[in-house]
């Protein structure tokens, strides 16, 4: 009997349908990651910064239906193995918490200075808390009246 044959009396697993570019559970689809250079530039130029002792974030509105993530880990954090491990950890935390993240925002994660590699549970809670707080501050800034520019002369 093959592994894929039906077992009498047992219903097959139903996997929820996902939009193109978004995976329902395992891993991140291409539409859930910030990948282009122009998107990174816009994030670093116009994004709102926030963080705590576990993770630092830069958040910016992306005009899409879902949140996207990127990781920026500097060389001073350590060798390539350590940096890549931290990048994978950020993506894993985002994957677990993407349903609790505010939709329509890009998030860049980076480590605070002088910290090591955090535990996944602490990172998951911190990521949601920090992103939600930073989005609220970003929206508050958008609601304020823009300053009128004085002509320079």
Mean pLDDT: 84
Helix segment tally: 3
Helix proportion? 25-40%
Residue stretches low in confidence (pLDDT < 50, at least 5 long) are: none
In what range is the share of β-strand residues? 5-15%
Compute the number of strand runs: 4
| Strand order in the sheet with the most strands | 1-2-4-3
What is the string of helix and strand elements? Answer: HEEEHEH
Shape, please?
Answer: globular
Radius of gyration: 19 Å
Distance between the termini: 85 Å
Q: Which class best fits the helix and strand makeup?
A: alpha+beta
What composes the largest sheet?
4 strands, mixed
Written overview of the protein:
The protein is of the alpha+beta class. Helices cover 34% and strands 13% of the residues. The chain is built from 3 helices and 4 strands. It has helices at 37-46, 80-97, 120-143, and strands spanning 48-51, 56-61, 68-71, 105-110. Strands 1-2-4-3 form a 4-stranded mixed sheet, sandwiched between helices. Helix 2 packs across helix 3. The chain is globular and about 75 Å long. The N and C termini lie far apart (85 Å).
């Amino acid at each position: 009997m093959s592994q894929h044959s039906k077992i009498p009396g047992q219903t097959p697993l139903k996997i929820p349908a996902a939009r193109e570019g978004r995976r329902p559970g395992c891993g991140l689809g291409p539409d859930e990651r910030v990948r282009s250079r122009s998107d990174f530039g816009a994030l670093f130029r116009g994004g709102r910064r926030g963080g705590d002792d576990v993770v630092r974030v830069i958040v910016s509105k992306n005009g899409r239906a879902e949140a996207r993530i990127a990781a920026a880990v500097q060389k001073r954090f350590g060798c390539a193995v350590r940096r890549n491990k931290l990048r994978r950890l950020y993506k894993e935390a985002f994957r677990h918490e993407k349903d609790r993240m505010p939709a329509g925002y890009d998030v860049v994660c980076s480590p605070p200075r002088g910290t090591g590699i955090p535990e996944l549970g602490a990172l998951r809670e911190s990521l949601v808390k920090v992103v939600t707080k930073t989005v609220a501050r970003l929206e508050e800034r958008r609601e304020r009246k823009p300053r009128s520019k004085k002509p320079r002369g």
